[in-house]
Queue: 2 jobs
Job 1
Amino acid sequence: MANRKGIIFPFRSKLLKAKNPYERTDFVNRVAVVYWSGTGNTEKMAELVAEGVVAAGGRADIFTAAEFTKEMVQNYKALAFGCPSMGVEELEDTEFEPMFSSVKEFLKGKVIGLFGSYDWGDGEWMRNRVADCEDYGLTLINDGVIANNEPDDEAAENCRALGAALAKA
Ligand SMILES: Cc1cc2nc3c(=O)[nH]c(=O)nc-3n(C[C@H](O)[C@H](O)[C@H](O)COP(=O)(O)O)c2cc1C
């Protein structure tokens, strides 16, 4: 006949070993990848950033600039924003710039990565974006990944590395 100890303690230790129902074993870092692209180059970069997120064990949610809203920011700790150089070394001004202006204040305290494609310039638009974000007090994980037109192997690798870094942020 089991004594009190024999009944209670094995049972209790079994309970203690049982899985804590509140422990999230399915946890992955969700990263938002938000982009605008006119001819597909920055879109390709967004896909590569997402690839890097997934390869590092995270989950990437890809949105176009038109789909993303300030209410969505709270779902993410890390976000990547991609926009090509448009205007004269500027952001695309009908969808990306208005979206970014509206979400900016909610990005404080988040980890942000920037990326985008350009053509004839030297990446000035990205340097300006990085400076603007830093002046505003945002935490940038990089100096902005840039690709001259379609991402070549080096730019592709930089995009994947950005995704991996955001997944681990
Ligand atoms: C209206 C317009 C303005 C542009 N202005 C610049 C610029 O100032 N500097 C630059 O390097 N490239 C500029 N570009 C080139 C684009 O940045 C380049 O084609 C880029 O690869 C486009 O990316 P996407 O395919 O994601 O749209 C401009 C392109 C367009 C259509």
Note: The chain has one domain: 29-167.
Job 2
Amino acid sequence: MQSPSEPPDSATTTAAPPPPTTTPPLPHNSSSDDFFSSASFPSSSSSDGDNLISPSPPAQIPISWPGTLTLDWILNLISVFEWASRNLPPSELPSVLPVKVFDSLVLTASKVLHKEPNCVRIDECGDGTSVVVVGDVHGQLHDVLFLFREAGFPDENRVYVFNGDYVDRGAWGLETFLLLLAWKVFLPHRVYLLRGNHESKYCTSVYGFEKEVMAKYGGNGKHVYRKCLGCFEGLPLASIIAGSVYTAHGGLFRGTPVTPSKRAKKKTRKIIINPESNSLYLGSLEELSKARRSVLDPPWEGANLIPGDVLWSDPSMTPGLSPNNERGIGLLWGPDCTEEFLKKFGFKLIIRSHEGPDAREKRPGLGGMDEGYTIDHVVESGKLITLFSAPDYPQFQATEERYKNKGAYIVLEPPYFDTPVFHSFEAVSPRPKASPYYDFEFVIDSDEELDLASMVTS
Ligand SMILES: [Mn+2]
């Protein structure tokens, strides 16, 4: 059992760059303990939003890089982001989070993430450990902070698995992503960050994150955006919790038949691509483990087919595997495929995300996302669940009639971790005022109908 203020393992100590030299921290008036004893967190009763408003700036700005992250540093980061979101224009973010501190955090996190396998196995869950699974959060920083305060911060006995889609649409994708990276660096074996389809160049150029970064970091915006994309490449694709729960942003994926090349060069392989649905079959965990995840964007073919499926696919009530024509990428899979996958690998649950209330509105036969989750398939070996953790989504909506959806997270408890306990929650209200970073009135509601041609050329 380690103290939360001590470095959790060597991952945080091997990659610590030197502290920033040009932006020394301002002298602050007290120890962090003094500041946080009077601050509003981590009270779990702070759901009314009133005590989230901090009229005076946090004690420790600008943030400096400590070399090794501590719980106090992360709590201060939360405080600074929350305060800045309500009191500073977006372009002032660098005055509280200097680009050099951004660089250190992203570099350190990227090194940790790139070492993880495509499918992380979370097995070190002891008797006293619970696992919190979180779906799409889409830059809704204040709702993420509420979730952490209600479910409890990550610690020795509380593991977090995030299913991707940290950025785009919401106005605080950068702060949200950086906060999650900070937790990852601080507790690399207690916080797992999987990739969503929005952690890509294509999505972030259409749905707001790129423009958000440019607005916040100005002249350093391109640099900050490039570093974020590099970090996205390191995000693993899936997790297996306690050997019985599979999680991924989209879900299941196809097998990619491999035949030896005629010219038997060393390790040269030819991957047969056949878009006919009757040639589709479920992929194996071994294929997933060998997939190449470092390419962020379509065209999704060859070695990219599996990541494309894992990030973009959706469940269906129609049996079998078929191309996901609505999205133009990924697959649709039926209850029979859920059963096949669960049975083959001895799993009890699949927890995927990827569909919010807007997407579900267009999916007759599947449940709506009012409560932040749906149980889509109930089969002999277990269940398939969709989990969406952005309440009152999307933040910017063209119609007056809002979805008013709740977000949800799932807690998995020992000893088997295979019985989901659902926690639905309302959006933090009021949200700070913010301007959208994409043309939400003209950009399509969900991720459907992708312009594949533009993806190929961009
Ligand atoms: Mn998604």
Note: The chain has a mean pLDDT of 85.
